[in-house]
């Protein structure tokens, strides 16, 4: 890989230990993937933030990097293993909380904006068309590439930290034009009228994509909440972290020769496959984290009702603050539902606490099954809320 004089000095340790280590990570990655050079990034979203994933070895690495490492570009974090303020209300053990706080302190020392969310694009980390970034969480990566037209590979924890501390990433994969072309045209012959159906579409199509980039045709409109649901599921079930939708997403691509069709029956069948059972003891909404519009809808439903099951609502803290100012949070909390700011049902230490989960997220189903051994119920948001209150 060709390095500039400054990059070579960074690699040689002239800019300190954290930068030297970061450059080593980036150069190795670039060499593995055949990158010719490093390119500057406009922002970073660091993944691998939960102590549940990091363990003590991960925490030690972060503390070492924090000794002399400082971020060069605006950087936010993926969800942590707990709500950083209200972890006790979510039943998080004290020893876990202590370690998780140390993780966040290390990031803070590096100058990271410690907002922990998989929807950084709702809270100010929102790149534009053609911007190169280095993001880690798969749904956020897919949203950035597809909906915003930014350019990022699905980075791992260490490479996001390395990008943040140097402001650079190797130029390969989805940073290059040739890898952003559509590989299959997907004719959608189904009515997609809610986020959960977009999640089901991602499940149905993701399973057969084998890494190809789809170009969807036949979707007349889609809200950002619907696109975030599709972003989360398509990449989870096997797609590349990029899709295009004719008339909706910003990048213009050629129509590929290969085609497939998705019908109403395919979506119905997909929804059926995401259900293991029809009742759940734990309900999670906000995978990916809720938008303010979703919180308004949740408050509208829960107003005057009482939640009878454990119901968590995943959200970025700045969005929760907005909800506070609108009086929505009070309505939601008065019902007995709990906000899970900064965290989610997948990265929190929940194994063994519940046997069944209901969610409106196809991605949530995948990880509920795979990571926590939950049996799953897949419903739209209203269906989940009904289950929580009836
Ligand atoms: Fe976000 Fe957690 Fe879902 S990181 S996309 S809420 S699994």
| Rough outline | globular
Biggest sheet strand order reads 12-11-10-13-14
Number of helices: 14
Major sheet characteristics: 5 strands, parallel
Q: Give the helix/strand class.
A: alpha/beta
Task: Name the poorly predicted regions.
Answer: none
The percentage helix is 40-55%
Roughly how many Å is the radius of gyration? 21 Å
- The end-to-end distance, rounded to whole angstroms, is 60 Å
Bound molecules: FE3-S4 cluster
Mean pLDDT: 97
Bin the strand percentage.
5-15%
β-strand number: 14
N-to-C SSE string, H for helix and E for strand: HHEEHEHEHHEEHEHEEHEHEHHEEHEH
Topology record:
Elements (H helix, E strand, L loop, with lengths): L4 H7 L5 H16 L5 E3 L3 E3 L4 H18 L6 E3 L16 H16 L24 E2 L2 H9 L10 H10 L1 E3 L13 E6 L5 H15 L4 E4 L6 H13 L7 E2 L13 E5 H10 L8 E4 L6 H11 L7 E6 L1 H10 L1 H7 L3 E4 L14 E4 L2 H11 L2 E4 L2 H9 L1
Parallel strand pairs: 2-3, 2-4, 6-7, 6-9, 7-8, 10-11, 10-13, 11-12, 13-14
Antiparallel strand pairs: 1-5
Bound molecules: FE3-S4 cluster.
